[in-house]
Amino acid sequence: QVRLVESGGALVQPGGSLRLSCTASGFTLRTYSVGWFRQAPGKEREGVSCVNSSGGFSYYVDSVQGRFTISRDDAENTVYLIMNNLQPEDTAVYYCATSVCPFYSDYTGFWGQGTQVTVSP
After folding, report:
1. What count of other Cβ atoms lies within 10 Å of the Cβ of residue 52?
2. Which of 15, 83, 102, 108 is the most exposed place for a label (fewest CB within 10 A)?
3. Average confidence (pLDDT) over 71-82
4. Residue 11 vs residues 40, 84, 90, 117, 118: alpha-carbon distances, Å
């Protein structure tokens, strides 16, 4: 069964950190570019970050540049999103998906179910 499973979301105070994981099963994730997306209540989904299949290129939306880091561990079939200095505006459901990188088109493939990140005092 082909699946992407996100984990690591939590309630955290402003300035805190989280590491989100996106683990694939049923297929080899290293052959895909992978994106992290988020959707806050009442807002459109936005692409936050992505990494290409080789891991040699990554992209970040301006609002997270310098605070978030994307990486991949092909041995674990996993892509991570390390989020530092979290702010209330980062509150959203975070999803991973196979995608293009950078986000030059809306193409996506497999999606995970999402993990909730809430940043609040």
Report:
1. 17
2. 15
3. 97
4. 14, 14, 11, 6, 5
Q: Which residues pair with 36 in a beta bridge?
A: 49, 96
- For residue 18, count CB atoms less than 10 angstroms from its CB and return exposed for 0-12, middle for 13-18, buried for 19 or more: buried
Closest alpha carbon to 28 in 70, 97, 77:
77
Q: What is the DSSP letter of 105?
A: S
Whether the per-residue pLDDT at 34 is higher than 90: the answer is yes
Q: How far is CA 53 from the centre of its chain?
A: 15
Q: What DSSP assignment string belongs to 18-73? A: EEEEEEEESS-GGGSEEEEEEE-TTS--EEEEEE-TTSS-EEE-GGGTTTEEEEEE
Residue 104 confidence (pLDDT) above 90:
no
pLDDT over 90 at 105, yes or no:
no
Q: What percent of the chain has pLDDT over 70?
A: 100
Tokens 């895909």 correspond to 32
